[in-house]
Amino acid sequence: MTLGKVAERAGVAVDTARKALRHDPSVRPYIKERVLKAAMELDYHPNLVARALRGNNLQIVPIAVLELGEFYYGELASQISRQLVQIGMEPALCFNPRHLMKMSRSFSTSGSILVFGSDYETVHELSRRQKVVTIDALLPVMPSVGNVSINFNAIYRHLAESLLRRGRRRVAIDSGHYLRCLDRGWPIQKIPAVFDVLAEAGLDTVGPNSRHVFGAAPELGAWLDAHPRSIDTVICENDLEAARVIGELAARGLKTPDDVLVVGCDANCKLAGMWSVKLDTNQIAVRAVAILKRLLDGDDVRDNPEYMPELLDEFDQPIPISRPAPALKTS
Asked: 152-278 — its CATH code?
């Protein structure tokens, strides 16, 4: 099936059909609808490789995700993919910088979105050949690069302060992700704010080693067997791990939030009684793809948007930040 057949069925010129299928805003909505209907009826799919050869550019956008198994990163990659498809681009998952660079060179891709694991060398090299959008990357400002900042520092400071105001002072951290980031030298943007607030109050987290961080729920459960009542709050990497912690507590006759308050992150599978830091992956994805589109349109993007998460209590109600959040620092 050819584009000419689609244009003929829709009663438009081939160039108009091509623009409509690329979601070009210059095409009137009723014409675009007619072309899309014709393409669907004829089961037409554009040849992306042929398109790339004509324009020396392939409408594929690699999405770099180093931790796809983490619920938040997997959901964010899914939302970004949906947003890209809506603007006529094709998402492709990459799992390490080498894979990302290979795809960029092999297919002359239009741009890349780095969900996690952004390092200066990779981003700088990519930006020399295409547009790049990073998610919450602490990198210097670079040409052809945009960033969606997530103010984890402010929301986790707010979390720790809220816990202290409620008399919660025996705080534990359960995050295998945090430990992996330490081991691999990846940036850590959640837990340090909790350490800072507790230190300001003369406190430290409860934990099994010099890092004072549990790597998994069973490890925390074993600690409670050896040290009963030593913990009144557990801050977890995500909601799924929080659910596992609640299971460990229940096995020991402990309830949340009465005996031990459990805090998750992402609010996608929040259980009754727990708190969670809500991350709206759709909002983050919309911001990321909007920046990419502006870069591809030739804009010099300097007004990078910031996303502020919400803290939800055990009743799913937001706990408002009592003072303005500090601005993010860029290095």
From this structure: 3.40.50.2300
Q: Hey, which CATH number is domain 55-151+280-308, 3.40.50.2020, 3.30.450.40, 3.40.50.2300, 3.40.190.10? A: 3.40.50.2300
Show me where the domains of the chain are located: 3-46, 55-151+280-308, 152-278
Q: pLDDT (tens digit, 9 = 90+) per residue, 181-227?
A: 888 887 788 899 999 999 999 999 999 877 889 999 999 999 999 99
**pLDDT of 328 over the 60 cut:** no
Check residue 119 and give its pLDDT: 80
For position 46, what pLDDT does the model report? 67
Residue-wise pLDDT tens digits, 75-97: 899 999 999 999 888 898 887 77
Question: Which amino acid does the sequence have at 164?
Answer: L
Tell me the Cα Rg of the chain.
Answer: 24
**pLDDT for the residue numbered 330:** 44
